[in-house]
Amino acid sequence: MAIMRIRIYGDPILRKKAKPVEAVGDQEKKELEDMAKTMYSAKGVGLAATQVGIDKQLIVVDVGNGLLKLANAKVIKAQCAKTAEEGCLSFPEITVKIKRPEKITVEALNHDGVKVKIDAEGLLARAIQHEIDHLAGVVIVDRIGVLQKAIIAKKLNKLKKIGRKG
Hints:
alpha+beta; five-stranded antiparallel β-sheet; Peptide Deformylase
């Protein structure tokens, strides 16, 4: 297993819509393992493939209840929106308040390529939605208002310069 380089805001891949996975084969399993190792190394609770430069719909999430490795994850039911602080490994040292559904049901392929339905709430629901956003090219600053953006503008500009350099 290898630790991968996490892409920083400004890197164009963070705006790319990831391609669906046809099947979870050996390559995808290895990528999910490497992503998990990278997430743990960075002390994160989730990581999307695009954050490490992979153009596939793969995510890993672990909020303390065990590791989820998912492909083609899609929210099929959502309820009870709540605002909470979120950070992101692609936005080091930045947190913002984002409103998201508190309870969700997700359909995906698991690590073995089997279709699963997952009911999630709280931090797990938030983390899964955050990673699914990444796969659609959506980042946390897309979900905040003008005032929050103004408050973190200098930090964002600094990150953009780093991210563009790759």
